[in-house]
Amino acid sequence: MVKAGFICEGETETIIVRSDAFQSLLNTFGIECIDSVIDASGAGNLLPQNIEDFRQSLIDSGANQIFILTDLDDSTCITLTKQRITERLNQTIIVSVKEVESWFLADSATMSKLLKDSFSFETPESQENPFSFIKKLMLKKTGAGCGSKVNLANKMIRRGFSIENAAQHPNCPSANYFLTKLQSLRP
């Protein structure tokens, strides 16, 4: 069985990885998640000189595959973002385009529940600052905001957000890439 460790750029990614839905998805693929999901507390902590202790901690806990989840943010190139982190054997770097919240925009079913209205978004990974966009949309549609990114992530998880839903969106290739990489580990 593959034992996967996860290093997440921030709290939103960590909430997604720790969610029951994501853990169930991993089980479906025959992947066991190492208990300690690491929140790196920012992209700067994903630089090679900072990441080695995170990696070693996961390896010491039994991980034989490591996933690093980060945002593209204002960078223009996924490849350069991966090179900045430094690719390693048995390590997969997942870069969500713009921010991981763009995956929320790609999950039409969950966004519809959140907004209590039918929702679809054609180009989720093209939206500048998807968190701010969702926050304003919530205020407009429901009369209530979502507060912080953590609050939004928790609301999305409670309403059924899944990587599978985001990956099915034709214009969310980073979520699809993540799902494909997980599927490739299936024994």
Give a structural overview.
This protein is an alpha/beta fold. The chain folds into two domains: 2-98 and 172-183, Rossmann fold (3-Layer(aba) Sandwich); 102-158, no CATH class. Helices cover 49% and strands 13% of the residues. It is built from ten helices and five strands. The protein has helices at 11-18, 20-28, 48-60, 78-85, 101-106, 108-115, 130-142, 149-158, 163-168, 173-183, and strands at 2-8, 31-33, 38-39, 65-71, 91-96. Strands 1, 2, 3, 4 and 5 form a five-stranded parallel beta sheet that branches. Strand 4 (65-71), helix 4 and strand 5 form a beta-alpha-beta unit. Helix 1 (11-18) runs parallel beside helix 8. It is globular. This is DUF4276 family protein.
Give a brief rundown of this model.
Helices cover 49% and strands 13% of the residues. It contains ten helices and five strands; from the N terminus they run E-H-H-E-E-H-E-H-E-H-H-H-H-H-H. Strands 1, 2, 3, 4 and 5 form a five-stranded parallel beta sheet that branches.
Helix fraction bin: 40-55%
Which H/E pattern describes the elements? EHHEEHEHEHHHHHH
Q: What's the CATH C level of the largest domain? A: Alpha Beta
Choose one word for the global shape.
Answer: globular
- State the CATH topology of the largest domain: Rossmann fold
If you average the pLDDT, what whole number results?
Answer: 93
Largest sheet: 5 strands, parallel
What low-confidence regions span 5 or more consecutive residues with pLDDT below 50? none
What is the distance, rounded to the nearest whole angstrom, between the alpha carbons of the first and last residues? Answer: 7 Å
Can you tell me the CATH architecture of the largest domain? 3-Layer(aba) Sandwich
Counting DSSP H or I runs of 4 or more residues, the number of helices is 10
| Structural class by secondary-structure content | alpha/beta
Number of strands: 5
Radius of gyration: 16 Å
- Tally of separate domains: 2
Q: Proportion of β residues?
A: 5-15%
